[in-house]
Amino acid sequence: MNASTVTVTGERADLLQSLRQHREFLLFTVKDLTDEQAASRPTVSELCLGGLIKHVGQAEKGWVDFILEGPAGLGGDFDPTQWSEEMQQERANEFAMVEGETLASIVSEYEGIAARTDQLVASLDSLDISHPLPSAPWFEAGARWSARRALLHIIAETAQHAGHADMLREAIDGSKTMG
Hints:
By secondary structure, the chain is mainly α. Helix content is 57%, strand content 3%. Helix 1 runs parallel beside helix 6, helix 3 packs parallel to helix 5 and helix 3 packs antiparallel against helix 6.
């Protein structure tokens, strides 16, 4: 089923509209930037705009995988105290632009992830399907999330990081997403 041939209404339309709006805010923060600007860290934070978009995309992909596959889609159980140095570096690289990455490639990958999510929202049998969350210190033990709850989390994550991105962009050249 092609999402472009499906009319999405009601709750699903609302979810997609909200998610698309926050994605637009996020992507607006990198409009007309060079790779160097997108990779820069203009504040005391380790965050850069390219890394934020990459992180939001990976988070969205992981939660869509969760909707489709359950806890395994998020990589299974988490215990950050047991992460190897390599795993810690992989996590840090999720928030940075690393050698060989360009802003265009990061944005393109994010747009592909977004299209997959939009397709899922349009075609999923029910937003009520649920899975147990993986074991992690940041999740309530024994909790389950529905597809709806996972999509709301994607929206919240995108909105939160769009705000971070707006501050980073303003620090780079004074531009603002809203104003």
